[in-house]
Amino acid sequence: MWWDWLVADAAAQEPAIAARAITMRGPAGPVYGPVDLDIDAGGLTVLVGAPGVGRDALLLTLAGRMRPDTGTLLVLGRSRVQDIFDGAALAAIDGVDELSDTATVGDLITEKLRWDAHWYKVVRRADAHALARVCGPVFGDLPLPPLSEAAGELSELDAMLLRIALANTGRPPLLVVGDVEQVATDRDREQLVGRLVALGEHQTVVTASANGVTTAGVRNILVEDHPRHAAAAQEEGEA
Q: pTM for this structure?
């Protein structure tokens, strides 16, 4: 596979992700940082911190979709943003991969398979085989959504798993997933985490949570708020 060299690099170097004093600024000021991270290869790692633009931007950075303004970042032994991008899948981030409410599961799978295919290859409309191939590794023992189901009618859990499945068709060595608390109910969120743990048997999986995850074997890493957030909270308390 084209990413074998990335896997080899990850196996030869620990940790899989090493960030030192990375920061990002936007028009309104600091977005995140400075952040130091060491994330081991394989398994599921949860970045624990307040939800918002800063945490999403950090996830985007780890997946090679954004470049930090300062600091150093190594992902699977690579520092160039395009190389990081090529070795990472990104799912369930607002503004990046929302599902169209009116599109069916079959529509979405067909579109993704056509996007993945070489320009000269004819990709027919997704059938039950394509559904199993795309969604099976992510859904595991959970029921697959019907091809005819509109995305807007899916449960939170099924919609989240479908977004992950669509992002992860290439099965790169790194999978970055947005906030697990997008799935509101405890039972469904536990099932989501369980599926991410299963994917972590073959990939390095990174996600985020405001409260952390207590599932055995899951690594939780606290990501501190930027000082400006802490200052704002202190000012509110004093008021």
A: 0.88
